[in-house]
Write a structure and sequence with these properties.
By secondary structure, the protein is an alpha/beta fold. It is built from 13 helices and 19 strands.
């Protein structure tokens, strides 16, 4: 039996894949190490979505290769989207890599690692469209929250995105399987369930009956003892129906925070992106959501500099942000990804896209400042996540903060506040864009 180290990169969905691989190896008798040094084999689970993610993955492979040269680790296996996308390039150009595993072969991790340790060169690439196998996980998040992946793959075919070619067609998990996992996680102490998929709003539409099942799933999650918060990520605007809005508005366990990637607001740019709907639809949807869900925090992602985005189109996007005052916005400069429709479009120097992303970030920082100022004097429920002895402050998250994406709330308390518990905090100040306060009297 071997000691196995893991490096997990990329999104929450990728992290779940990593946790499942850990479980399979652990069940097979191998030991999962807390870090990579001393490992007989290191699994680097990569992202290959955009240039920055690819660079991060390559840097980690090179750094692990240096550890291997120094004798600190044994074999190296690369899994995930980078290996799926650049199979031959990794084998040809990175001699430190002993094996690669595609996104359709996560379930083969035990056999692959054991072949690797036996001195064989491993190269496994199963179907990326195959049905997902149900398997346990070794949680790598803090015990009080977990990502609940409800589907794999994507059918949206956005012009700028390579994910369908790396992850396959959209495959929903069975509702009973998702709920069984959620109950198991809750029994293990998970209090916040974060629902994720490439497109959560499409959940169930590929199953017999072709019905949207997200609203049903959310209602059932709210019935599970131990779950205190349910958070939903990656809702596509065109799939948000009245039933889903009603459930989000009426269920107190569902935090009033929605991650809805819109990418742009200009109709022509949305058409070039192969996005369904138009700017007017998005604006009306956001207006309706705010009207029906008091206190709603909206997160979105945007792409600047797509071919065809001139000054007028970009100004329309900025004007929309000033009107909509979205609380959370991530802006990404367009980069042509080989294998996508957008890569074939004529595009200007990337510097323009980067400059526009920076303008959006600056604009958004002012909107965030205003949001934080509006929180002063309010009392918020906070999920405590730790204590900083240097600051002599506890820190945690409100409903408006998703882990590893948004900020923290810092607070003083007259008692010991255990990590993973909830408390009420009076917000009194802002520091470096984050809220600060004092725990309310019990």
């Amino acid at each position: 039996m071997a000691n196995i180290g893991f490096i997990s990169l990329g999104c929450a969905k990728n992290q779940v894949n990593c946790e499942q691989m850990m479980y399979r190896l652990q069940e097979a008798g191998h030991t999962i190490l807390p870090n990579v040094e001393g490992a007989d084999a290191v699994i680097i689970n990569t992202c290959g979505f955009i240039d920055s993610a690819k660079a991060e993955a390559i840097d980690n492979i090179i750094a692990t290769g240096q550890l291997k040269t120094a004798g600190a680790v044994g074999k190296i296996m690369v899994t995930g989207c980078l290996s799926q996308r650049y199979q031959q390039e990794i084998l040809n150009e990175m001699p430190e890599v002993d094996g690669i595993l595609g996104t359709g072969s996560y379930q083969e991790i035990v056999e692959a690692v054991e072949e690797l340790l036996a001195g064989k060169k491993v190269c496994r690439f199963g179907s990326i469209h195959a049905k997902e196998e149900e398997v346990g996980r070794v949680l790598t998040t803090p015990q009080h929250y977990a990502f609940l992946k409800i589907a794999e793959g994507c059918d949206n075919r956005c012009a700028y995105c390579i994910i369908p070619s790396l992850r396959g067609k959209y495959r929903s998990r069975q509702l009973d399987d998702v709920l069984y996992e959620a109950r198991t996680l809750a029994a293990e102490g998970v209090k916040e369930m974060i629902v994720v998929a490439q497109d959560t709003s499409r959940y169930g539409t590929d199953l017999p009956g072709h019905k949207r099942l997200l609203a049903t799933l959310l209602k059932e999650l709210c019935k599970i003892d131990g779950i205190h918060w349910v958070r939903v990520h990656y809702l596509y605007p065109d799939e948000i129906d009245e039933e889903l809005i009603d459930v989000i508005a009426s269920e107190p366990k569902i935090v009033k925070y929605l991650d809805i990637p819109i990418q742009h607001i200009n109709d022509d740019i949305l058409r070039r992106m192969n996005r369904r709907g138009n700017g007017a639809y998005v604006e009306e949807l956001f207006r309706k959501l705010r009207e029906r869900i008091p206190g709603l925090v909206l997160r979105t992602s945007l792409i600047t500099g797509l071919p065809g985005e001139g000054e007028a189109e970009f100004e329309q996007l900025c004007s929309f942000l000033k009107r909509a005052k979205l609380e959370r916005v991530g802006a990404f400069a367009f980069s042509p990804e080989e294998g996508t429709a957008a890569a074939k479009m004529d595009y200007p120097d990337n510097e323009i896209a980067v400059q526009r992303a920076e303008i959006v970030e600056e604009l958004q920082s002012r909107i965030m400042d205003q949001y934080n100022e509006n929180m002063l004097g309010k009392t918020l429920e906070i999920l405590s996540e730790g204590y900083d002895p240097e600051e002599d402050l506890y820190y945690g998250r409100s409903y408006a903060d998703s882990p590893d994406i948004d900020g923290r709330v810092w607070f003083k308390a007259e008692r010991t506040v255990k990590t993973g518990t909830f408390c009420m905090v009076n917000i009194a100040d802002i520091r470096d864009g984050e809220l600060m306060g004092q725990e309310a009297e019990q």
